[in-house]
Amino acid sequence: MRRHTTPAMALLSILAIPLLTACSGDVTGPPALELSPPLRVVPSTAAMRVGQTLELRALMRGDHGSWQIAPQTLGWQSSEPEVAEIDEDGTVRATAEGLVVITAECNGFCAYAQIRVVPKDGSLNW
Fold first, then answer.
1. Which among 80, 81, 126, 76 has a CA at the least distance from the CA of 106?
2. ∠52-99-61 over CA atoms, to 5°?
């Protein structure tokens, strides 16, 4: 039995060859975009003396990539409240010597600041 090739089948065969060739082997596609996290805390590291306060700011990346102050729906948390407390406005109060991580949370994203608290007369150098 002999096969008949119609013009449409011939055209389909010609078009399919580049597609099959392009999909065979190692196809990696375009490089992935690496975006910075959409939320950050500034400063991200700090040293404080017991009794001092420090104002942290949470910034969100906007639609066009620019950084803006995060909305009021932001939540703050201290990993060690006995070392440093943080209020709803982002003000840290150092209460005891130690290391603390402050977390800012907004719209499901988190960002962190690491703070070292030293004695009142201690050195602020890391």
1. 76
2. 80
